[in-house]
Automatic annotation (TrEMBL):
This is GDSL-like Lipase/Acylhydrolase. It comes from Neorhodopirellula pilleata. Pfam families: Lipase_GDSL_2. It comes from the Bacteria. The keyword Hydrolase applies. Residues 1-19 form the signal peptide. Residues 84-270 form the SGNH hydrolase-type esterase domain. InterPro entries: Ester_Hydrolysis_Enzymes, SGNH_hydro, SGNH_hydro_sf. One of its GO terms (molecular function) is phosphatidylcholine lysophospholipase activity. The keyword Signal applies. Keywords: Hydrolase, Signal.
Length: 465
Protein backbone atom coordinates (compact mmCIF):
# COMPACT_ATOMS: atom_id res chain seq x y z
CA UNK A 1 0.00 0.00 0.00
CA UNK A 2 1.23 3.50 -0.75
CA UNK A 3 0.90 5.80 2.23
CA UNK A 4 0.37 9.49 1.70
CA UNK A 5 1.17 11.77 4.58
CA UNK A 6 1.75 15.43 5.20
CA UNK A 7 4.23 17.56 7.08
CA UNK A 8 4.73 21.28 7.46
CA UNK A 9 2.15 22.10 4.82
CA UNK A 10 3.68 19.57 2.42
CA UNK A 11 2.29 16.32 1.06
CA UNK A 12 4.25 13.42 -0.33
CA UNK A 13 4.23 9.68 -0.82
CA UNK A 14 6.16 7.77 1.83
CA UNK A 15 8.92 5.54 0.53
CA UNK A 16 10.49 2.30 1.65
CA UNK A 17 14.25 2.03 1.59
CA UNK A 18 15.56 -1.52 1.20
CA UNK A 19 19.15 -2.31 0.39
CA UNK A 20 19.72 1.15 -1.01
CA UNK A 21 16.76 1.00 -3.41
CA UNK A 22 13.51 2.88 -3.19
CA UNK A 23 10.09 1.39 -3.84
CA UNK A 24 6.65 2.87 -3.79
CA UNK A 25 5.53 0.80 -0.79
CA UNK A 26 4.46 2.02 2.60
CA UNK A 27 7.02 2.54 5.32
CA UNK A 28 4.43 2.02 7.99
CA UNK A 29 5.01 -0.09 11.09
CA UNK A 30 5.24 -3.84 10.67
CA UNK A 31 4.20 -5.12 14.10
CA UNK A 32 5.60 -8.62 13.53
CA UNK A 33 9.06 -7.56 12.38
CA UNK A 34 11.98 -8.55 14.64
CA UNK A 35 14.74 -6.86 12.66
CA UNK A 36 16.22 -5.18 15.72
CA UNK A 37 16.47 -5.58 19.49
CA UNK A 38 15.78 -1.89 20.05
CA UNK A 39 12.66 -0.74 21.85
CA UNK A 40 9.46 -1.54 19.92
CA UNK A 41 8.40 1.07 17.40
CA UNK A 42 5.02 2.61 18.32
CA UNK A 43 2.02 1.88 16.15
CA UNK A 44 0.42 5.32 16.05
CA UNK A 45 -0.70 6.63 12.68
CA UNK A 46 1.07 9.21 10.58
CA UNK A 47 -1.30 12.10 11.23
CA UNK A 48 -0.42 12.75 14.87
CA UNK A 49 1.56 15.95 15.24
CA UNK A 50 3.68 17.66 17.86
CA UNK A 51 1.93 20.27 19.94
CA UNK A 52 3.27 23.73 19.28
CA UNK A 53 2.95 27.27 20.60
CA UNK A 54 0.92 29.92 18.87
CA UNK A 55 2.81 32.45 16.81
CA UNK A 56 3.85 33.23 13.28
CA UNK A 57 7.12 31.27 13.66
CA UNK A 58 5.12 28.03 13.93
CA UNK A 59 2.34 28.62 11.41
CA UNK A 60 3.96 26.71 8.56
CA UNK A 61 5.43 23.87 10.61
CA UNK A 62 3.44 20.82 11.69
CA UNK A 63 6.02 18.17 12.59
CA UNK A 64 4.92 14.60 13.02
CA UNK A 65 4.71 13.29 16.58
CA UNK A 66 8.09 12.02 17.70
CA UNK A 67 8.16 8.36 18.75
CA UNK A 68 8.61 7.84 22.49
CA UNK A 69 12.17 7.41 23.67
CA UNK A 70 13.37 3.96 24.82
CA UNK A 71 12.38 2.97 28.33
CA UNK A 72 15.73 1.26 28.86
CA UNK A 73 19.25 2.23 27.91
CA UNK A 74 20.42 1.14 24.47
CA UNK A 75 24.02 1.26 25.68
CA UNK A 76 25.90 -1.84 26.78
CA UNK A 77 29.10 -2.12 28.74
CA UNK A 78 32.12 -1.79 26.46
CA UNK A 79 30.18 -0.34 23.52
CA UNK A 80 32.12 1.26 20.68
CA UNK A 81 30.19 4.37 19.70
CA UNK A 82 30.61 6.05 16.31
CA UNK A 83 29.29 9.63 16.05
CA UNK A 84 28.73 10.26 12.35
CA UNK A 85 27.66 13.35 10.41
CA UNK A 86 28.57 16.36 8.30
CA UNK A 87 30.35 19.62 9.15
CA UNK A 88 28.08 20.16 12.16
CA UNK A 89 29.43 16.92 13.58
CA UNK A 90 32.95 17.90 12.52
CA UNK A 91 32.62 21.00 14.70
CA UNK A 92 33.31 18.48 17.49
CA UNK A 93 30.90 20.10 19.89
CA UNK A 94 27.80 17.95 20.37
CA UNK A 95 30.03 14.91 19.87
CA UNK A 96 32.36 16.19 22.60
CA UNK A 97 29.45 16.78 24.98
CA UNK A 98 28.23 13.22 24.35
CA UNK A 99 31.65 11.64 24.86
CA UNK A 100 32.45 13.66 27.96
CA UNK A 101 29.03 12.85 29.41
CA UNK A 102 29.44 9.12 28.82
CA UNK A 103 33.02 9.19 30.16
CA UNK A 104 32.40 10.95 33.47
CA UNK A 105 28.69 10.46 34.16
CA UNK A 106 28.52 6.78 33.17
CA UNK A 107 32.10 5.52 33.62
CA UNK A 108 30.90 2.05 34.61
CA UNK A 109 29.82 1.45 30.99
CA UNK A 110 33.37 1.97 29.64
CA UNK A 111 32.08 3.37 26.34
CA UNK A 112 34.69 3.96 23.61
CA UNK A 113 33.78 6.84 21.29
CA UNK A 114 34.90 8.04 17.84
CA UNK A 115 33.92 11.25 16.09
CA UNK A 116 33.59 10.79 12.31
CA UNK A 117 32.24 14.14 11.05
CA UNK A 118 33.14 15.36 7.56
CA UNK A 119 32.39 18.88 6.35
CA UNK A 120 30.07 19.24 3.37
CA UNK A 121 29.02 15.61 3.56
CA UNK A 122 25.66 14.08 2.63
CA UNK A 123 24.31 10.65 3.50
CA UNK A 124 25.25 9.53 -0.01
CA UNK A 125 28.89 10.52 0.47
CA UNK A 126 29.19 8.80 3.84
CA UNK A 127 27.74 5.61 2.37
CA UNK A 128 30.69 5.52 -0.04
CA UNK A 129 33.36 5.86 2.65
CA UNK A 130 31.78 4.08 5.61
CA UNK A 131 33.55 0.73 5.17
CA UNK A 132 37.03 2.26 5.28
CA UNK A 133 36.43 5.08 7.73
CA UNK A 134 33.86 3.59 10.10
CA UNK A 135 33.13 -0.12 9.86
CA UNK A 136 36.80 -1.12 10.09
CA UNK A 137 36.59 -0.05 13.75
CA UNK A 138 33.64 -2.40 14.44
CA UNK A 139 31.24 0.06 16.08
CA UNK A 140 28.57 -1.58 18.20
CA UNK A 141 26.37 1.52 18.23
CA UNK A 142 26.27 4.55 15.93
CA UNK A 143 24.55 7.92 15.86
CA UNK A 144 24.03 9.71 12.56
CA UNK A 145 23.08 13.30 11.84
CA UNK A 146 22.49 14.12 8.18
CA UNK A 147 19.96 16.21 6.32
CA UNK A 148 21.28 19.77 6.36
CA UNK A 149 23.40 19.36 3.23
CA UNK A 150 20.99 16.76 1.87
CA UNK A 151 18.24 19.41 1.84
CA UNK A 152 20.49 21.40 -0.51
CA UNK A 153 19.47 24.73 1.05
CA UNK A 154 16.33 24.98 -1.07
CA UNK A 155 12.59 24.34 -0.77
CA UNK A 156 11.32 20.78 -0.50
CA UNK A 157 10.97 18.57 -3.54
CA UNK A 158 9.87 14.95 -3.68
CA UNK A 159 12.77 13.59 -5.74
CA UNK A 160 15.25 14.95 -3.22
CA UNK A 161 13.38 13.25 -0.37
CA UNK A 162 13.59 9.92 -2.20
CA UNK A 163 17.33 10.45 -2.75
CA UNK A 164 17.86 11.24 0.93
CA UNK A 165 15.72 8.35 2.18
CA UNK A 166 17.46 5.87 -0.09
CA UNK A 167 20.92 6.67 1.21
CA UNK A 168 20.01 7.23 4.87
CA UNK A 169 18.15 3.94 4.97
CA UNK A 170 21.01 2.14 3.24
CA UNK A 171 23.48 3.43 5.85
CA UNK A 172 21.25 2.19 8.67
CA UNK A 173 20.96 -1.20 6.99
CA UNK A 174 24.71 -1.48 6.39
CA UNK A 175 25.45 -0.65 10.03
CA UNK A 176 22.91 -3.23 11.19
CA UNK A 177 24.49 -5.85 8.94
CA UNK A 178 27.82 -5.15 10.61
CA UNK A 179 26.25 -5.76 14.03
CA UNK A 180 25.78 -2.17 15.18
CA UNK A 181 22.74 -0.63 16.82
CA UNK A 182 21.72 2.62 15.11
CA UNK A 183 20.22 5.96 16.11
CA UNK A 184 19.21 8.07 13.12
CA UNK A 185 19.20 11.77 13.90
CA UNK A 186 17.15 14.31 12.04
CA UNK A 187 18.77 17.46 10.68
CA UNK A 188 18.67 20.54 12.86
CA UNK A 189 16.99 23.80 11.92
CA UNK A 190 18.26 26.78 9.94
CA UNK A 191 18.46 30.25 11.47
CA UNK A 192 19.40 32.05 8.26
CA UNK A 193 19.65 31.27 4.57
CA UNK A 194 23.14 29.89 4.13
CA UNK A 195 25.44 32.52 2.64
CA UNK A 196 27.17 29.93 0.43
CA UNK A 197 24.00 28.92 -1.46
CA UNK A 198 24.39 29.67 -5.14
CA UNK A 199 20.79 30.31 -6.11
CA UNK A 200 19.38 31.80 -2.89
CA UNK A 201 16.24 29.90 -3.83
CA UNK A 202 13.36 30.00 -1.40
CA UNK A 203 12.74 31.64 1.93
CA UNK A 204 14.01 30.69 5.38
CA UNK A 205 10.56 29.32 6.20
CA UNK A 206 10.71 27.09 3.14
CA UNK A 207 14.16 25.85 4.08
CA UNK A 208 12.96 24.92 7.56
CA UNK A 209 9.89 23.24 6.06
CA UNK A 210 12.27 21.12 4.00
CA UNK A 211 14.41 20.24 7.03
CA UNK A 212 11.28 19.42 9.02
CA UNK A 213 10.09 17.21 6.17
CA UNK A 214 13.38 15.28 6.24
CA UNK A 215 12.96 14.96 10.01
CA UNK A 216 9.57 13.32 9.50
CA UNK A 217 10.96 11.11 6.78
CA UNK A 218 13.74 10.03 9.16
CA UNK A 219 11.05 8.90 11.61
CA UNK A 220 9.64 6.74 8.81
CA UNK A 221 13.06 5.29 7.96
CA UNK A 222 13.79 4.57 11.64
CA UNK A 223 10.45 2.81 11.97
CA UNK A 224 10.95 0.69 8.86
CA UNK A 225 14.51 -0.25 9.83
CA UNK A 226 13.71 -0.80 13.51
CA UNK A 227 16.39 1.62 14.67
CA UNK A 228 16.42 4.52 17.10
CA UNK A 229 15.45 8.10 16.27
CA UNK A 230 16.87 11.34 17.70
CA UNK A 231 14.75 14.44 17.16
CA UNK A 232 17.25 17.23 16.59
CA UNK A 233 15.08 19.56 14.50
CA UNK A 234 12.08 20.23 16.73
CA UNK A 235 13.80 20.99 20.07
CA UNK A 236 16.33 23.16 18.21
CA UNK A 237 13.65 25.07 16.36
CA UNK A 238 11.60 25.53 19.55
CA UNK A 239 14.72 26.77 21.36
CA UNK A 240 15.58 29.07 18.47
CA UNK A 241 12.24 30.84 18.74
CA UNK A 242 12.08 30.80 22.54
CA UNK A 243 15.74 31.77 22.98
CA UNK A 244 15.35 34.74 20.66
CA UNK A 245 12.35 35.95 22.67
CA UNK A 246 13.96 35.24 26.03
CA UNK A 247 17.55 36.35 25.57
CA UNK A 248 18.07 38.42 22.40
CA UNK A 249 18.98 42.09 22.57
CA UNK A 250 19.58 44.45 19.64
CA UNK A 251 23.31 44.26 20.34
CA UNK A 252 23.45 40.50 21.00
CA UNK A 253 21.01 38.27 19.14
CA UNK A 254 20.53 34.81 20.62
CA UNK A 255 21.15 32.39 17.73
CA UNK A 256 20.67 28.70 18.47
CA UNK A 257 21.55 27.77 14.88
CA UNK A 258 24.77 29.80 15.05
CA UNK A 259 25.93 33.08 13.60
CA UNK A 260 25.80 31.72 10.04
CA UNK A 261 22.39 30.15 10.65
CA UNK A 262 23.63 26.61 9.98
CA UNK A 263 26.51 25.73 12.31
CA UNK A 264 25.34 26.05 15.93
CA UNK A 265 27.38 27.40 18.79
CA UNK A 266 27.58 25.66 22.15
CA UNK A 267 23.95 26.33 23.01
CA UNK A 268 22.67 24.63 19.86
CA UNK A 269 25.12 21.77 20.16
CA UNK A 270 23.99 21.14 23.73
CA UNK A 271 20.45 20.69 22.43
CA UNK A 272 21.76 18.29 19.79
CA UNK A 273 23.67 16.27 22.41
CA UNK A 274 20.55 16.18 24.56
CA UNK A 275 18.53 14.76 21.65
CA UNK A 276 20.99 11.92 21.10
CA UNK A 277 21.51 11.12 24.79
CA UNK A 278 17.79 10.76 25.47
CA UNK A 279 17.47 8.69 22.29
CA UNK A 280 19.95 6.30 23.95
CA UNK A 281 17.39 5.77 26.72
CA UNK A 282 19.56 7.10 29.56
CA UNK A 283 17.72 7.63 32.83
CA UNK A 284 19.85 10.47 34.23
CA UNK A 285 20.05 9.25 37.84
CA UNK A 286 23.73 9.89 38.47
CA UNK A 287 23.73 10.24 42.26
CA UNK A 288 21.32 9.92 45.16
CA UNK A 289 22.28 11.03 48.65
CA UNK A 290 19.82 10.42 51.50
CA UNK A 291 20.70 12.24 54.73
CA UNK A 292 18.86 11.62 58.00
CA UNK A 293 20.00 14.39 60.32
CA UNK A 294 18.18 12.90 63.30
CA UNK A 295 20.41 9.82 63.01
CA UNK A 296 23.40 11.66 61.49
CA UNK A 297 23.40 9.12 58.67
CA UNK A 298 24.04 9.32 54.92
CA UNK A 299 23.36 6.66 52.29
CA UNK A 300 24.69 6.96 48.74
CA UNK A 301 23.93 5.30 45.42
CA UNK A 302 26.37 3.29 43.34
CA UNK A 303 29.50 5.14 42.23
CA UNK A 304 29.76 7.09 45.49
CA UNK A 305 31.66 5.78 48.50
CA UNK A 306 31.29 7.22 51.99
CA UNK A 307 34.78 7.70 53.46
CA UNK A 308 34.16 9.46 56.77
CA UNK A 309 31.62 11.49 58.73
CA UNK A 310 31.31 13.83 61.67
CA UNK A 311 28.48 15.97 63.01
CA UNK A 312 26.30 16.78 59.95
CA UNK A 313 29.32 16.45 57.60
CA UNK A 314 30.17 13.60 55.25
CA UNK A 315 33.19 12.99 53.02
CA UNK A 316 32.68 10.90 49.89
CA UNK A 317 34.69 9.68 46.95
CA UNK A 318 32.75 9.61 43.68
CA UNK A 319 33.71 7.90 40.44
CA UNK A 320 30.61 9.33 38.73
CA UNK A 321 30.60 13.06 38.04
CA UNK A 322 27.74 15.47 37.39
CA UNK A 323 27.77 17.09 33.97
CA UNK A 324 29.32 20.48 34.74
CA UNK A 325 28.67 23.74 32.90
CA UNK A 326 28.85 27.30 34.16
CA UNK A 327 28.48 30.76 32.70
CA UNK A 328 25.65 33.11 31.70
CA UNK A 329 22.43 31.43 30.56
CA UNK A 330 21.72 34.23 28.06
CA UNK A 331 24.85 33.51 25.99
CA UNK A 332 24.24 31.26 22.96
CA UNK A 333 27.93 30.36 23.00
CA UNK A 334 27.53 28.69 26.38
CA UNK A 335 26.70 25.07 27.21
CA UNK A 336 24.80 26.06 30.34
CA UNK A 337 22.58 28.27 28.21
CA UNK A 338 21.72 25.33 25.98
CA UNK A 339 20.94 23.27 29.07
CA UNK A 340 18.40 25.91 30.06
CA UNK A 341 16.52 25.48 26.76
CA UNK A 342 15.81 21.76 27.23
CA UNK A 343 15.25 19.65 30.39
CA UNK A 344 18.89 18.54 30.40
CA UNK A 345 19.37 18.56 34.17
CA UNK A 346 15.95 17.08 34.83
CA UNK A 347 16.34 14.15 32.43
CA UNK A 348 20.08 13.53 32.23
CA UNK A 349 21.87 15.18 35.14
CA UNK A 350 20.22 14.35 38.46
CA UNK A 351 22.43 14.57 41.54
CA UNK A 352 19.71 14.36 44.16
CA UNK A 353 20.30 15.37 47.77
CA UNK A 354 17.42 14.59 50.12
CA UNK A 355 17.60 15.71 53.75
CA UNK A 356 15.18 14.70 56.49
CA UNK A 357 15.17 15.37 60.22
CA UNK A 358 16.06 19.05 59.84
CA UNK A 359 14.95 20.91 62.99
CA UNK A 360 15.15 24.37 61.40
CA UNK A 361 13.12 26.06 58.64
CA UNK A 362 16.25 26.55 56.47
CA UNK A 363 19.65 24.99 56.04
CA UNK A 364 22.89 26.00 54.42
CA UNK A 365 24.20 23.20 52.22
CA UNK A 366 27.97 23.32 51.88
CA UNK A 367 29.21 21.20 48.99
CA UNK A 368 32.96 21.44 49.15
CA UNK A 369 33.81 25.15 49.01
CA UNK A 370 30.39 26.09 47.60
CA UNK A 371 27.29 26.93 49.61
CA UNK A 372 23.58 27.61 49.10
CA UNK A 373 20.50 28.02 51.31
CA UNK A 374 17.48 25.76 50.92
CA UNK A 375 14.11 25.59 52.72
CA UNK A 376 13.42 22.50 54.81
CA UNK A 377 10.53 21.50 52.57
CA UNK A 378 12.66 21.59 49.43
CA UNK A 379 15.40 19.52 51.02
CA UNK A 380 12.86 16.95 52.22
CA UNK A 381 11.69 16.45 48.64
CA UNK A 382 15.21 16.55 47.22
CA UNK A 383 17.34 19.13 45.41
CA UNK A 384 19.40 18.56 42.28
CA UNK A 385 22.94 19.55 43.24
CA UNK A 386 24.07 19.48 39.60
CA UNK A 387 21.50 22.14 38.73
CA UNK A 388 21.80 24.28 41.85
CA UNK A 389 25.63 24.38 41.89
CA UNK A 390 26.81 25.24 38.38
CA UNK A 391 30.33 25.49 39.85
CA UNK A 392 31.00 22.61 42.23
CA UNK A 393 33.71 20.27 43.56
CA UNK A 394 33.79 18.37 40.24
CA UNK A 395 34.22 21.35 37.92
CA UNK A 396 38.01 21.24 37.69
CA UNK A 397 38.22 17.48 37.19
CA UNK A 398 35.40 17.63 34.66
CA UNK A 399 37.27 20.30 32.73
CA UNK A 400 40.42 18.18 32.55
CA UNK A 401 38.52 15.23 31.10
CA UNK A 402 36.65 17.45 28.66
CA UNK A 403 39.89 18.95 27.36
CA UNK A 404 41.34 15.47 26.89
CA UNK A 405 38.22 14.44 24.96
CA UNK A 406 38.55 17.55 22.79
CA UNK A 407 42.17 16.67 21.96
CA UNK A 408 41.26 13.12 20.97
CA UNK A 409 38.35 14.17 18.79
CA UNK A 410 40.50 16.78 17.06
CA UNK A 411 42.98 14.04 16.21
CA UNK A 412 40.20 11.79 14.89
CA UNK A 413 39.36 14.41 12.26
CA UNK A 414 43.02 14.54 11.23
CA UNK A 415 43.29 10.76 11.29
CA UNK A 416 40.38 10.18 8.91
CA UNK A 417 40.42 13.24 6.66
CA UNK A 418 44.14 13.90 6.36
CA UNK A 419 45.78 10.51 6.91
CA UNK A 420 43.36 7.88 5.65
CA UNK A 421 42.56 9.89 2.51
CA UNK A 422 46.11 11.09 1.83
CA UNK A 423 48.61 9.64 -0.65
CA UNK A 424 50.08 7.79 2.31
CA UNK A 425 46.73 6.21 3.08
CA UNK A 426 45.99 5.38 -0.53
CA UNK A 427 49.36 3.67 -0.86
CA UNK A 428 49.02 1.51 2.26
CA UNK A 429 45.83 2.01 4.24
CA UNK A 430 46.53 -0.79 6.72
CA UNK A 431 49.89 0.68 7.68
CA UNK A 432 48.30 4.12 8.02
CA UNK A 433 45.60 2.67 10.25
CA UNK A 434 48.15 0.99 12.52
CA UNK A 435 50.27 4.10 12.86
CA UNK A 436 47.38 6.47 13.49
CA UNK A 437 45.66 4.11 15.92
CA UNK A 438 48.85 4.00 18.00
CA UNK A 439 48.85 7.81 18.12
CA UNK A 440 45.16 7.91 18.95
CA UNK A 441 45.59 5.39 21.77
CA UNK A 442 47.85 7.82 23.61
CA UNK A 443 45.00 10.34 23.57
CA UNK A 444 42.54 7.70 24.80
CA UNK A 445 44.90 6.96 27.68
CA UNK A 446 45.09 10.67 28.47
CA UNK A 447 41.32 10.72 28.94
CA UNK A 448 41.52 7.79 31.33
CA UNK A 449 44.34 9.45 33.24
CA UNK A 450 42.28 12.63 33.58
CA UNK A 451 39.17 10.81 34.79
CA UNK A 452 39.95 10.25 38.45
CA UNK A 453 37.56 9.80 41.40
CA UNK A 454 36.79 13.04 43.19
CA UNK A 455 36.73 13.49 46.96
CA UNK A 456 34.08 15.94 48.20
CA UNK A 457 32.25 16.88 51.38
CA UNK A 458 28.62 17.63 52.14
CA UNK A 459 27.87 19.67 55.26
CA UNK A 460 24.33 20.53 56.37
CA UNK A 461 24.18 23.60 58.61
CA UNK A 462 20.73 24.36 60.11
CA UNK A 463 19.74 28.04 60.02
CA UNK A 464 17.66 28.91 63.06
CA UNK A 465 15.14 31.77 62.97
Amino acid sequence: MIRRFGCCGLMWLAVVVTGGTVTGQSVGIDPVSTASDLAPIPTFGPFLYESKPDGVAFEKLNPRKCPPMPEQSLLRKGDRLAIIGDSITEQKMYSRIIETYLTVCLPQLEIQTRQLGWSGETAERFLKRMDQDCLRFDPTIATLCYGMNDAKYRPFDFNNSVWFASHYGAIAERLQQSGARVILGSPGCAGKIAKWTKTKAGTLDEHNQHLCALRDLTIEIAGEKRVGFADVFWPMYMAQVEGDARYSTPENPYEVAGSDGIHPGWSGHTIMAYAFLIAMGLDGDLAKFEIDLARNKLSASDGHQLESQSDRQWTLTSSRYPFCASGPVDDDGNIRSGMSMVPFNERLNRWTLRVTGLDAPMAMVHWGDFSQRFPREELAVGVNLAEKFDVNPFSEAFGRVDQAVAAKQAYETEQIKKRFHSKEGQADIEKTVRETEAERMLLVQAIEAARQPVSHTILIEPILP
